[in-house]
């Protein structure tokens, strides 16, 4: 780690992702000179733990970014739209974990294992991709480099923590209610701000995020657009179906990818095994494959069920699991911040 | 319904599927002259309810099939292998719900909405396909007839009831334990007879059934092989990834299908709306799509999230939900039996 010490603001410090960012800064020995946890007026005055001390949360006003070197944002898109320019104006570099700037051509969209070189092109804001995109591109990067591909079809199995800490509480409360025969309250899933809410306990909801004109959801279109941008390759065609399942932490993905050249499976496994940020856990005959419940709290992207497609011998099927709050959000953001400090 | 009355044996009458077969026979006013519930010696002597009466379960011996016209089997593959020939020898027609005879070229594999005409070709045994195959082919049949297709890529979200009543109890017990911070006991999932068992509560397990030589699971290969056989079209290429999720009843499937001719989406929706056994629930803008929790107990196959693929304009994406114990097992078997009686 570099020795330069920086002042770090964490916006949304009391949320599900903010909490993981603080843990990550601590665990990765990030060179924090001063930590400034920020949140809405409602949460200001609370405290968060950092390196064994209680730090008071401040209200996220424009002036709260005075003197900040790096600001990690995860308080929702509209707040990012309003406050990121203010933070940049005051000299901070913003690593934004929302959808606000991801497709802005002036904003690098970065997964360090894939396109760390884009970080230097920032104009004050660097975007952290969507959780479901991040884990997929980390798993696909070694295949892209060694074999090339232009076609991906993915179906996701997404944890409720993608919708925040309240959604995690909702799943648990609904599960308790269902098991004791009580009425199930539905207030958040699938999308808090939409009209209709459905039970997620013992259910599967084929909607993450709002609907788009073309019948896909925003979550699905994020995977389509962000994958092209991160690889810097508009020829990559992604089809996504995003589904919420009753899992607290950890997204899983069933990924079909058509490679551009012939391969043998051991070559694929070697590429995955050697890839930065990837852990290969792949032996169906020994019942070895990653599962979200056991990967919660881990930073890597786990890949299993690697198999040659039965129809197209150039295609591969993969099962990709990662903690959506960590590599899917907090860890990736802090990794970007680390690269910033190194530069 | 025809007026001919028949003697019906239900083998596995005390199991999760057997129970649903009895309900189905009752609800569909199947012309049962005599019901003969059969099970292992362990369950013999218990009673089951049928048309308001308690009927004693008999031990499933070869002679128990004397005088039986139609025998509905769902007590596991090895029992079918042993007893189906005995039942046939005694004059019964067997509708077998296990994997024992599905790929036998002398045994029709039937989903009435797709290939009812195959029933007449039986030599005593008719096979009921795998649950995840049945709901997919019912949804795909109208597309096959109107547009043709030869390529399907499917990822499943399968309920634990596919592994029987004990697996349903396991999911509930594990959920209770997790929520109260107690130790989670793992005895059944993902596959009872295998060495390793994993929690399914708040988890996703990318394994249904045992592993095959090619790295796919048997459940995945069932979808590949059975789809070809049911459509009678070896050119259909299916890629399947089968995943167990913490749902009690109702399988869901994310289906990508490449049609052979151009289409407009309304034409597709009309074909689905008019198809036998299909209920279209499709309007993402109104948050209308099927979900397994609300479809438990219903006989139809529900289809939503119908959308043109963003990459291949000839491809469609669908979300298909059905109760795996009903259309995926009991209902399909009883529908076959109805056709047998009509013939």
Automatic annotation (TrEMBL), chains A, B:
Family matches, as SUPFAM superfamilies: Glyceraldehyde-3-phosphate dehydrogenase-like, C-terminal domain, NAD(P)-binding Rossmann-fold domains
CDD domains: ASADH_C_bac_euk_like, VcASADH2_like_N
GO MF, one example: NAD binding
Semialdehyde dehydrogenase NAD-binding domain location: 7-122
Reaction(s) the record says it catalyses: L-aspartate 4-semialdehyde + phosphate + NADP(+) = 4-phospho-L-aspartate + NADPH + H(+)
Tagged with keyword NADP: yes
Binding-site positions, substrate: 158, 244
Active site: 131, 251
Pathway membership, UniProt: Amino-acid biosynthesis; L-lysine biosynthesis via DAP pathway; (S)-tetrahydrodipicolinate from L-aspartate: step 2/4; Amino-acid biosynthesis; L-threonine biosynthesis; L-threonine from L-aspartate: step 2/5; Amino-acid biosynthesis; L-methionine biosynthesis via de novo pathway; L-homoserine from L-aspartate: step 2/3
Example of a GO biological process term: 'de novo' L-methionine biosynthetic process
EC number: 1.2.1.11
Residues reported in the UniProt entry to bind phosphate: 102
Keyword presence, Kinase: no
Gene3D superfamilies linked to this entry: Dihydrodipicolinate Reductase, domain 2 (3.30.360.10), NAD(P)-binding Rossmann-like Domain (3.40.50.720)
Keyword set, alphabetical order: Amino-acid biosynthesis, Diaminopimelate biosynthesis, Lysine biosynthesis, Methionine biosynthesis, NADP, Oxidoreductase, Threonine biosynthesis
Binding site for NADP(+): 14-17, 42-43, 161-162, 324
InterPro entries: Asp_semialdehyde_DH, Asp_semialdehyde_DH_beta, NAD(P)-bd_dom_sf, Semialdehyde_DH_NAD-bd, Semialdhyde_DH_dimer_dom
Family from the record: Belongs to the aspartate-semialdehyde dehydrogenase family.
Subunit and partners: Homodimer.
Its job: Catalyzes the NADPH-dependent formation of L-aspartate-semialdehyde (L-ASA) by the reductive dephosphorylation of L-aspartyl-4-phosphate.
PANTHER family for the chain: ASPARTATE-SEMIALDEHYDE DEHYDROGENASE, DEHYDROGENASE, PUTATIVE-RELATED
Protein name, as recorded: Aspartate-semialdehyde dehydrogenase
UniProt lineage: Bacteria, Bacillati, Bacillota, Bacilli, Bacillales
